[in-house]
Design brief:
Order of helices and strands: HEEHEEEEHEH
Strand order of the largest sheet: 1-2-5-4-3
Number of helices: 4
Helix content: 25-40%
Distance between the termini: 51 Å
Low-confidence stretches: none
Number of strands: 7
Number of domains: 1
CATH architecture: 2-Layer Sandwich
Strand content: 25-35%
Shape: elongated
CATH topology: Beta Polymerase, domain 2
Structural class: alpha/beta
Radius of gyration: 18 Å
Length: about 160
C-alpha cells in the first residue's frame, strides 16, 4: 500500500512508523484525495478520530490527524498534515459522514476550519465562547471568569 501511494504522490506523502504504529505525513493539498483513496481502494472504512495538536513555536503551528481503521485488514493508520494558523483543511464529511462531529470538535477546541463542512459550529462550548481552549497559548482562567460573570452573574470559583 505504501509503495503504491508513494508512487502516486511522490514527495507529497511521507510514510513513517513509530513504536509499531503506521502513519503518514501528507501535504495539505493532497488530504482529500489521500483520504478518498484510503477509504475506497485500501478499505479504511472507519474514521476513528480526527484531532489536532498545537505547537505555537513552529511556523506550521498545527498538526491535524485522522485515525483510520480498516475492518477488512484489521489495521489502523494515521494521516497527519501540518498547517499554519488560519489555514483550513478540506472536510472529510463527504468521505465519512461521522467526521461531522469530529471536525466540529477540532474547530471548537483549536479553531481549525474544515472547508466544505456542512455546518461548522461549536459542539462542546457555548456559541458565544471566545477562543479555542486547546491552543497552548489560550488563557482558560481569564475566559472562564469572563463567561461565568457575563452569563451567570457570579464570580467564578476558579
Amino acid at each position: 500500500m505504501i509503495a503504491k501511494l508513494k508512487g502516486m504522490y511522490g514527495s507529497g506523502i511521507d510514510p513513517l512508523t513509530y513504536l509499531g504504529q503506521n502513519f503518514m505525513v501528507v501535504d495539505r493539498s493532497l488530504i482529500p484525495e489521500i483520504l478518498q483513496v484510503l477509504r475506497n481502494e485500501e478499505q479504511f472504512d472507519y474514521c476513528v478520530d480526527i484531532t489536532a495538536v498545537h505547537y505555537p513555536q513552529r511556523e506550521k503551528q498545527f498538526d491535524v490527524l485522522w485515525v483510520l481503521y480498516s475492518y477488512a485488514r484489521n489495521e489502523r493508520i494515521r494521516v497527519k498534515t501540518q498547517i499554519t494558523d488560519g489555514e483550513s483543511v478540506a472536510s472529510s464529511v463527504p468521505i465519512w459522514p461521522a467526521a461531522n462531529w469530529l471536525e466540529r470538535e477540532v474547530w471548537d477546541m483549536f479553531g481549525i476550519k474544515f472547508e466544505g463542512h456542512p455546518e461548522l459550529k461549536r459542539i462542546l462550548l457555548p456559541e458565544e465562547w471566545k477562543g479555542h481552549p486547546l491552543r497552548k497559548d489560550y488563557n482558560i482562567l481569564k475566559q472562564d471568569s469572563e463567561w461565568v460573570q457575563i452569563n451567570l452573574g457570579i464570580e467564578s470559583g476558579q
